[in-house]
Design goal:
Chain lengths: 335, 252
């Protein structure tokens, strides 16, 4: 008997794509073009093309290239040193200067009205400055450290809130459906508030500084971790759990012995991602006054001190680069 | 402890009948094999003993106590279970997997941080030695062991609470014939030494013959044979393994 003889009539195996797929593809394409036109993607392409052409000498001038050029141009020279008028330093002691610093005396001439002669006279005014050659870099490093600390604590708080919420929203650990629904609601709510928005309000509540930053990061990340922690618990292999239930182990004991070891690698993965994300977000939420390097950046930018801004941007770039490296190492060590 | 099934029936939510009118008693210390092909109701029968599957009608009585939700927590501590796919936590160490068998005996302050009593640790070591593993295996992850070794860990775990009854649900279904014999030999030996009643489901006739004190054969949810292996003749075997009407043909 041949293989074809077993089949009475030819079987029908439809093509993977039919008219329906084609209609969906055309619809999707139209939607993409429509929305693209609304967000001025055509103009974006034209401007970018013009910028490229101007760089290779094929176009006269380009608004984009000039704008970018002047923005970057203003960032250099980078601000490295720090100069402070000694009159403004509290408890200044010229005998004990900070390390690697020196005094600089600047003589300026000022025209002042002489009260005796009622005439303008030129005076020499000496102002002493304390110059620290690496002062500003030091300052940025300290602010960066604060940012990292905010990110770390944001992550810790996220774990402390997210893990219990995940356990309250997973069927394996919480038998009561209404509690699970409520916990999931809280998790969704936390995840629906972007850090920047909650930071705005938390700054009003707690004042400028790192507290608002830590809480803003912690709340969003608790929503994120709560969701993903719970999902992994639900997807964990049920057989070891059943083995524990069968001998009469309680829910928490079952969770600890049969679920936690299974989900640990994913948990570490999510938590490392949140730590990474928190470091980057901690720089951003500083813009609304929630402490760290972002607050410094916003302050300097508002005072047109673009050299300072340049130093800060390079510091952020270096830290993110370092973070990527250490994150890869941590992943290799744990997973 | 003895186990008594009294007119036990189990219907699943979709209306299908897994067990109907099962009645027999297993005296303490017996190694009782439940034989039958896949889908005959062996697993379901074992699971009614520790309440993982509730009885639809009839009852299961263990040591004079009926298996009902109120008695379950206390009863389950006395009933160990060995699973077809071992049901170990692959990433956890061999030692932790075995100690997990004593989970109902531990306060949460010990369970959560993983600080176990010396008694539990010593017991896990003794049991692992008894099932033929080495000290070097203690800290290895369960997933790095062979199938036979994993089931040995499963057996050690089942004995952690000194159960009066052990339910072995197809304990050797995923092992090769030689290892299967070793594992069953070990299970019988450990149970004999402790006077543990064993209810062990198997689908291999030769293994059932070799290890059982008594064979109970199930077919389509009913007992079709009950007696010592010696009394199981060719006609019984033909009856037990007679083909079910092949329903695959009905798939359109």
């Amino acid at each position: 008997m041949t293989a074809t003889a077993a089949i009475e009539r030819p079987w029908r195996l439809p093509h993977p794509y039919g008219w329906r797929s084609l209609a969906i593809a055309i619809g999707a394409l139209l939607l993409v073009f429509y929305t693209g036109q609304r967000v001025e993607m055509g103009r974006m392409l034209a401007l970018t093309g013009q910028a490229v052409l101007s760089q290779v000498g094929l176009a006269d001038r380009s608004q984009v290239a000039e704008g970018l050029g002047s923005a970057i141009g203003r960032l250099v020279p980078l601000q490295i040193s720090d100069r402070q008028e000694i009159g403004r330093i509290e408890n200044f002691d010229a005998g004990h200067l900070p390390w690697f610093s020196h005094l600089e005396v600047v003589e300026t001439r000022e025209d002042r009205l002489d009260p005796l002669t009622s005439k303008m006279a030129s005076h020499a005014v000496k102002t002493s400055y304390l110059v620290r050659p690496l002062g500003y870099v030091q300052h940025v490093a300290l602010k960066m450290l604060e940012t990292l600390e905010i990110a770390l604590w944001g992550t810790l708080i996220a774990i402390l809130i997210g893990l219990p919420l995940a356990m309250l929203s997973a069927p394996a650990t919480m038998p009561l459906a209404p509690v699970r629904t409520a916990a999931r609601g809280i998790v969704s709510f936390f995840r629906a508030i972007p850090e920047l928005i909650s930071a705005l309000f938390l700054v009003i509540a707690y004042g400028f500084g790192p507290i608002a930053g830590v809480l803003a990061l912690g709340i969003y990340a608790a929503g994120f971790l709560g969701k993903f922690y719970a999902e992994d618990m639900e997807n964990a292999d049920p057989r070891p759990q059943e083995a524990l239930v069968a001998i009469g182990a309680g829910r928490l004991a079952t969770w600890r012995f049969a679920i936690l070891p299974q989900v640990m690698p994913q948990y570490i993965g999510y938590t490392l991602y949140i730590l990474d994300r928190n470091v980057r977000m901690a720089t951003v939420i500083g813009l609304v006054g929630a402490g760290g390097i972002g607050q410094e950046l916003k302050g300097r930018y508002d005072m047109y001190e673009y050299g300072h801004v340049g130093t800060i941007l390079i510091a952020i770039f270096l830290v993110v680069l370092l973070l990527d490296q250490s994150n890869a190492r941590l992943r290799r060590a744990f997973l | 402890m003895d186990i008594r099934f009294d007119g036990l029936s189990v219907h699943y939510a979709d209306g299908s009948c897994a067990l109907s009118g099962i009645s027999f008693a297993v005296p303490p210390g017996q190694f009782c094999v439940i034989l039958g092909h896949s889908g005959a109701g062996k697993s379901t029968l074992l699971r009614t003993v520790n309440g993982l599957v509730p009885a639809s009608s009839g009852s299961v009585v263990i040591g004079g106590k009926a298996v009902v939700p109120a008695t379950l927590p206390a009863l389950r501590r006395r009933i160990g279970m060995i699973h077809q796919h071992f049901a170990l936590v692959p990433r956890a160490t061999v030692a932790t997997n075995v100690i997990a068998g004593a989970a109902p005996d531990m306060p949460l302050w010990r369970t959560l941080p993983g600080i176990y009593t010396d008694a539990h640790r010593a017991k896990a070591c003794a049991l692992l030695a008894a099932v033929g593993l080495e000290e070097a295996h203690l800290q290895r992850r369960a997933e790095h062991l062979s199938g036979g070794q994993q089931q040995r860990v499963g057996i050690a775990r089942a004995f952690m609470l000194d159960p009066a009854i052990i339910l072995a649900d197809e304990p050797v279904a995923s092992l090769d014939p030689r290892i299967s014999r070793e594992v069953l030999e070990l299970l019988r030996e450990q149970a004999r030494a402790r006077g543990t009643t064993v209810l062990c489901s198997l689908h291999q006739l030769d293994l059932a013959r070799a290890f059982a004190d008594r064979i109970i054969a199930l077919k389509n949810g009913s007992v079709v044979f009950d007696g010592p292996p010696a009394l199981l003749d060719a006609r019984d075997v033909a009856e037990i393994y007679a083909e079910r009407p092949l329903r695959l043909a009905a798939v359109s």
